[in-house]
Amino acid sequence: MSSSRPRAGILVTGTEVLTGIISDRNGPWLSQQLAALGVDVVVIEVVGDRPGELLHALERMAADELALVVTSGGLGPTADDLTAEVVGRFAGREMVLDVQLEQRIAEILKPLMARWHGVDPEAVRASNRKQAVIPQGATVLEPVGTAPGLVVEPAAADGTGERARSGRADTAAAGAGDAAGPTVVVLPGPPRELQEMWPAAVETDAFRRAIAGAPEYRQRIVRLFGIPESEIAATLRAAPQAGVALDGLEITTCLRRGEIEIATRFDPAIAERYEALIEFIGQRHAGNLFSRDGSTIDQQVAELLRGMMIAVAESCTGGLMAARLTELPGSSAYFAGGIVAYSNEAKTALVGVEPVLIERHGAVSGEVAAALASGARERFSASVGVGITGIAGPGGGSEEKPVGLVCFSVAGPGQGYLTRSAKLPGDRADVRDRSTTVALHLVARALRGERD
Amino acid sequence: MSSSRPRAGILVTGTEVLTGIISDRNGPWLSQQLAALGVDVVVIEVVGDRPGELLHALERMAADELALVVTSGGLGPTADDLTAEVVGRFAGREMVLDVQLEQRIAEILKPLMARWHGVDPEAVRASNRKQAVIPQGATVLEPVGTAPGLVVEPAAADGTGERARSGRADTAAAGAGDAAGPTVVVLPGPPRELQEMWPAAVETDAFRRAIAGAPEYRQRIVRLFGIPESEIAATLRAAPQAGVALDGLEITTCLRRGEIEIATRFDPAIAERYEALIEFIGQRHAGNLFSRDGSTIDQQVAELLRGMMIAVAESCTGGLMAARLTELPGSSAYFAGGIVAYSNEAKTALVGVEPVLIERHGAVSGEVAAALASGARERFSASVGVGITGIAGPGGGSEEKPVGLVCFSVAGPGQGYLTRSAKLPGDRADVRDRSTTVALHLVARALRGERD
Fold first, then answer.
1. Chain A residues within 8 A of B16 when measuring between CB atoms
2. Contact B329/A190, CB-based, under 8 Å?
3. Interface contact flag, A253 B321, Cβ < 8 Å
4. Is CB count within 10 Å lower at the N or C end of chain A?
């Protein structure tokens, strides 16, 4: 299936990404966008700001005969931002100052300069002028921040710049033979700018030419909770034997925040085959397959809460449960509030947990989790209360109550509780994060009527 | 400088990473570890699970004459986990079952199987046996999860497996000429497993041989807050003119969570040159350079709080401020607790904000932020209280109070307040996250004695 699809590479530039100072958010995002357009992304590559490395990476991608390369980063005002220039050289196009673009960037900078005190305007203007120097004949994507994006076809593709092309050193794109080389989409590094600019890039004629022939293509995601990944592997192995054909389905399973996500990509013509697979998974893992439409547990809880309010009293998660419940826009419609009761005193004074409960069962216990849940519900006059208490580590564990032990309780809606505890794997950050996933699943079950 | 250092590539495998379903945490982490060892990381590459792509990527890295390749992922129990086998083929080594390793993995699986209900033990054993099949002569790294890691030298390097090597298709490593090709370190995909296994990999003889000749190497980080990146660019341009030489300093600047991070790598022999640069930056940006030793604002606040307790009442950040204050182990020594007061009712009932304040100034106002700060401080009997209220968006903004407007206040320690507001850029997630950075800086200033 993939052989007929246009192939693309993503080239993330920036020494700060290559050296691990920041992690790349653009590669994954671009990959999903390209897949949705029917493009086969074969590689995501991160290289530093040294121009030689960037050019070398472009040449490697040309040698692999990719139709499209999308770059992110290196469009900023500092001297190490060289992507436009290197891409121009790669495509065999001269660099020219786009005077009108320079003026538009100057307009953008005016209000920004007013925000900062003591900034030298000339320094800003000088360091930003270079953002208006672009490869001749490139399609400009209007700046979202201050940097314009570019769509740059190889010089041969539109008949311009052949002189520049023939004039360049002959090392580039050697592997591409007679092919003109990939079209390069040059995007800024900040994820928000890149994402906002993307639709304009997709709409350009140059982009459309590069991905001509991309088939319609579908990606579907289902999610499971509460089983190990090896069980899914066994199910996928068992499917063909049970008469469920998997040919043409590109299936990926991965663990994410304690859940298993199964992503499948396929030609719409074989949608029935996909449906049969999901039916098969649903039969084998009825209690675990919680999302057939790709919806997250966060979205499901928001939906289930319709018309009700939820409140949280949490300890080891330190505010992450409240933060997760307020992640989606519009969460004020169902989120009443939260209390982070880290100390025993706070559990008693702020949430009304009886000290005797803590003495008798310990702060990390189902009893205290339930008291936190009902206290949260009461204090915020909510329909549903959530209590979380546990040992995130690295210290504080004991033989009886090891690091990773977390107790969860949901009070309401209406009468009754749903209380569970789990020993979660991983380090402090993992335990805190996974706790919010476990709690959300418990909330969903309570909202569907389950009680202890 | 970099030409004398051994060069390495990082190869992240996994269709779930390539397709953007999950983002890679291993590339950045490995890059930092390798840099600390004096190794020059020239590329991080993400490829899918198709064995041909993985082999092709290894061959590209061999053609670039890298001394070392570190892979992550593809060691799991599912059929798409093929890294060990492909690396074996690449290195010219036959695959053999390590019977003792198989037994050790079986021991690891026993307690895991007890944790899950209704799992077919035979399925687990079968899908994990392949994890004990390794390239002949490879150094085994003991499993942290269930998958062993490997250090695989090219077959020529230790004299074993030459037969296998000469027998393979001749396409591999063609570009490396007579060179034996890179040593490949094969690590599991889950970040926790990879990180725990890394020290064992570094200690193997094979790894040491691969990076022989790596120079001692230093990386230092300083952090600034409250100025745009273009100002730093101007300062770096101005440095040589002011007699501050930058030769031999590899300087990277990046924006992270609203702060500017300047990372510099250099040979210890020119440490004085680095110190002169930081002195120069400190002179030009005295009020902004808050960290000369790389410490984060989180660590600084934790240090400044020594012996005091802090409490939070937050609205738009929805628990993220409390979560950030409890991120570091041992935070219970200084974090008293937090209230997420999303609704006006909660601000009044839980934190004691006077309704008249909200009516008069609006929920998003310096006055309400100060009332939240003092309410939090009082409720939790803390020395310091933090109040945050703002409009995270996407809805809820007005001309007077646009999306991104956030008001912060710190009450105490002792008398008085420090209250500020800021219009923060970005989407809902950006505004929420950056708010915690701004608040932490305000807390640090208050702890150093600043008051309105």
1. 252-254, 261, 263
2. no
3. no
4. C
Q: What is the DSSP string of A137-165?
A: TPEEEPPSSSPPEEEE--HHHHS--HHHH
Question: What whole-number distance in Å separates Cα of residue B338 and Cα of residue A315?
Answer: 10
Cβ within 8 Å, pair B17-A32:
no
- Strands A218-225 and A250-256, by their bridges, are unpaired
Please give chain B's pLDDT, 452 residues, in tens: 444 789 999 999 988 788 877 778 899 999 988 988 889 899 999 998 888 889 999 999 999 999 999 999 988 777 677 899 999 999 999 999 998 998 888 888 776 666 666 667 777 777 677 788 999 999 999 988 778 999 999 986 554 444 333 333 333 333 333 357 899 999 999 888 899 999 999 999 999 999 988 777 788 999 999 988 778 888 998 899 999 999 989 888 877 778 998 989 888 899 999 999 999 999 999 999 999 999 999 999 999 999 999 999 999 999 999 999 999 999 999 999 999 998 899 999 999 999 999 999 999 999 999 999 999 999 999 999 999 999 998 888 888 899 999 999 999 899 999 999 999 887 898 899 999 999 999 999 999 999 99
By C-alpha distance, the chain B residue nearest A341 is B337
Question: DSSP letters along A48-73, please?
Answer: -S-HHHHHHHHHHHHHTT-SEEEEE-
What does the DSSP 8-state code read for residue B318?
Answer: T
Chain A environment of B337 (Cβ under 8 Å): 339-343, 346, 350
Q: Are A34 and A1 contacting, i.e. CB atoms less than 8 angstroms apart?
A: no
- Three-class secondary structure of residue B254 per DSSP: strand
> What ipTM did this prediction achieve?
0.76
Residues of A within 8 A of B53 (CB-CB) are 42-43
Q: What domains are defined for chain B?
A: 2-210 (3.40.980.10), 218-295 (3.30.70.2860), 298-447 (3.90.950.20)
Query: Which of A28, A323, A342 is the closest to B20 by Cβ?
Result: A28
**Cα gap A15→A21, rounded to integer Å:** 8
Q: Mutation test of the interface with chain B: which of A340, A344, A391, choosing the one with the most B Cβ atoms within 10 A?
A: A340
Give the span between the Cα atoms of A432 and A391, in whole angstroms. Answer: 9
Min Cα distance B396 → chain A (Å) is 9
Per-residue pLDDT tens digits for A84-121: 999 999 999 999 999 899 888 888 877 666 666 666 77
**Rg of chain B (C-alpha set):** 27
* Best CA proximity match to A273, nearest among A286, A285, A263, A264: A264
A133: which strand partners?
Answer: A97
The pTM of the full predicted model, rounded to 2 decimals, is 0.77
CB contact under 8 A, A28 and B17: yes
How far is the C-alpha of A27 from the C-alpha of A35, rounded, in Å? 12
- Which of A269, A310, A317 lies closest to A428 in space, CA to CA? A317
Question: Running DSSP on this structure, what letter comes out for residue A64?
Answer: T
The answer to whether the CB atoms of A31 and B41 lie below 8 A apart is no
Residue A366 structure tokens:
């189902």
Contact B23/A24, CB-based, under 8 Å? yes
